[in-house]
Amino acid sequence: MVKKDEVKKAVQEQFGRNAEQYVQSQTHAKGDDLDLLVPWMQPQKNWTVLDIATGGGHVARKLAPHVGLVVATDLTRPMLEAASRANREQDVDGILYVQADAEALPFLDEAFDAVTCRIAAHHFPDPDAFVREVSRVLRPGGSFLLIDNVAPDDPDLAAFMNKIEKLRDPSHVRCLSPGEWRSLMEKHGLAGRMQRHRMKKFDFPQWAKRTSESLQQEEAVENELLQATEQQKAYLEMAVENGRVRTHQIEEWMVLYQKTRGDH
């Protein structure tokens, strides 16, 4: 059983310690998923948008010029401060920063025209509560855009992938499969409109170092990968040179849902 308070404390410690790294991280700052936000969502100038777990503020920065207001939330105050500094440096305004828990949002029902959450939901201990809250704060007809790393449908591969992620980052909870996300969306009155799968390739040493607290932790992640089965190595498309992991890949799902009913 996941202890929510412990998980959330770990998340705050992890992202508080590495806030500037997440702002500068090319994995988070770049990506054609960011370029798809506006074409997919078709934002309007009168919209109020909620960006949950804003991290480095990259989604908020992308959407702010196209809408009336972006409310950027994060569980971790230093992360919000880092995002705010980065957005000010790029002369982006129209963003309000609020410290908030994704599973207990401090907003009224039907307060937003759209909600976004990018590369963060795998840190949430209760995905059902997260999706319920998204649906609650969305106006009927409003859009929810979710981007996150996802696990494969194969339970053994999924367990292995999540084990690697947890070793690398103790604040990781679990990557869900697209099927699990679809069930939660349907349960809370959200209907799928668009989706895209992609495999993201990472430079392993850089990836491991970003959340590392010690060289021993990085070595533990690498050793786990080197001892993987052939099926696991194939799924991750691991490249090994001279006994060291050089690159691997992670599956990402980008999906646009729409709120279809007004009850919660």
From TrEMBL:
The keyword Isomerase does not apply. Gene3D superfamilies: Vaccinia Virus protein VP39. Residues 50-145 form the Methyltransferase type domain. Pfam families: Methyltransf_11. It comes from the Bacteria. GO terms for molecular function: methyltransferase activity. GO terms for biological process: methylation. InterPro entries: Methyltransf_11, SAM-dependent_MTases_sf. Keywords: Methyltransferase, Transferase. SUPFAM superfamilies: S-adenosyl-L-methionine-dependent methyltransferases. The keyword Methyltransferase applies. This is Methyltransferase domain-containing protein.
